[in-house]
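hey team, just a heads up i'm posting the complex here instead of the shared drive bc the drive is being weird again. everything in one block, sequence lines first with there labels, then the predicted structure for the whole assembly after. its two chains so it's a bit long, scroll down
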Amino acid sequence: MCPTVLGRVQTRWAILIIPAIIWTIVSLITQNPSYIVLIGLYFVIGVALDTAFYPFVIRWQPPWLTFVLAVGEFILVYLAAKSLKGIHFSSDWIPIAVYWITWVIAIWTKVVILPLVSLSWIEDAGEFRSTSWSVAPEYVPLAVTAFTPDLGEGGPPPLARKFSAAVIEIPEELRRAPSPSGVFQIPTGPPPA
Amino acid sequence: MPATAPRDSVVATVGDGFGSLLVHTTARYLGFENEQLTVFGPSDNPVGTYQQFAYNLGQTVLRSESESHFLAPDWPTFAQLDAWSHKSLRPLWRTIRRKYNPGVPEILTEAAVVMRRTGWEQARIPTKVGWLQRQMNPTPHFVMYDEQANFIGRAKHVMLAPGHGPLSFPPLLAKARKDPALADRIVQAYEPKQYAAGGRYIVLGAGIASVNEWANILDAGGSVLALTRNEQPETQDLNVPRCLFESIGIDAYTRLPFDQRIEFLGQVLRGTRPQRRQWLSRIQTGQQEGRFDAIVGEIDKIEPGRAGLRVYVKSKDGEDPGWLDVTGVTAGTGFNKSVLTLPLIRRLVEFYKVPVIEGRLRLQTNCGVPGLDLPESRLCCMGLIANNVIPHGDTIAGLKFISRRFVSDCARAEKLQRRSFPSRMSLQFSMGRDVAQALRTVSPTQQLA
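-- predicted structure starts here --
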């Protein structure tokens, strides 16, 4: 996927809706707003990264990178949660669990729900456009890696010398090799009854 | 049982290949009924032509990745279906590293399931469209005739999916193929063919078809001299750079003037191939055994010889290899890209004066045919003829990209009552289940990446 900045932000917003609803309910039940504040923090840090960092370092995002980014975001969210005074949990494990439960729900939303909501969401670089022939904001060409078979220096390669018609004798096996075409093959078996 | 002509429909697809199946699947997914759709074409198998080419090429896996298959949305992906059907995490592990390519038998199996579930065959008129007439009254629509000028149906919106033109050969080889003494020694990668142990072969080109043939010859015990015109072979996983598969690239590409698009296409489509570990190891083994070499040059002369053919090879740089005795020449030179090789398109060009530049239709940026396409009655193109708008138009991903937008245009024009989200989800679950069940009967194809 080659997401745009808008695509990243729209996708993040869409995948955090379900977790936000769940943790709002949990906050109301437990009378502890830290759950929903933590999700808000995750969203804000995520959007900051989506707009100011990822577009400059990632053009094409392979699937494996999604998990790597999640680990990085977890560290940032955890450190921010620890340093903010408004977030209190009875155990350090709770924000860790909240983050990873949120991430699992978000990734399922991204993989299963969003492609069903919008047929062209992936093709539209993570943006929610109507499925149409629209225009994207930027174009980023991708580099290709060069691969060239080893070419010998100093004249034709050894195999070309071996193939050379200047060789007086050619092996009997080669003389007998059939032509490669299957198009011109003549059936050799008995004719059909 | 196919349908019978004449048949009137809302959306018609002219062509019976991959594109027709993808338009049909997408239309059914969005909410069109089978009675509103028609496919025109003589083949009862939308993957038949591809299957034959893949067999001739000895192709075992697609170049495409996990999203390129025949279900309308991007979930489930093919790797997920494969993992589900074989209860294995291996396809998922490969796909997150972008090392998963659907196997040919598996993708053909899926196509058969999708075809059956969506009623593709019941919507097919087993006739080739020979002529298409634009009518403006009482509402804009198209009238279709077969190649004998018999009326076969009408449709409000039409997708032209005629597939590739004929196989292409370099001029010298095309001429030599007309000589009965040489004809059976010169083959195209996509034709049926055989290689002999001990045989010597020249393979032209360095694209995916040519590399397949290198591997096939080495596997058969023959020797390969790979001949390319330029020192340009590059590897890229897909047939155009990745971001050109998505709007970020496609829209920037579409914004370019037509001439620049053609020039750009020439650069990005120039004989690339994916990096495949299995191929590389076979070629390296071939090199070590003295059975593989590469040279930059061209065949200058060709005549009958002691081993079958006598070929004069001119080197681009340095000393010419000169006259070579070889068993055969295989051309991995693809298909003729001119739209004028497609009879229906040629007739449309001649009659409606559709603009053609260097063999390419100058399509609108929505793949519409200029002068015939209207928002309320679309005439759209897909496949290779549309790659001057969608650069990967002839890949499964490109066909999907065009199908989705074309069918969405039709749905908007017809004010279609779209399928609800729960209905879409349930359709995907049941289609995925059926495909996974069918895949269980297929032995997993070895991955090459």
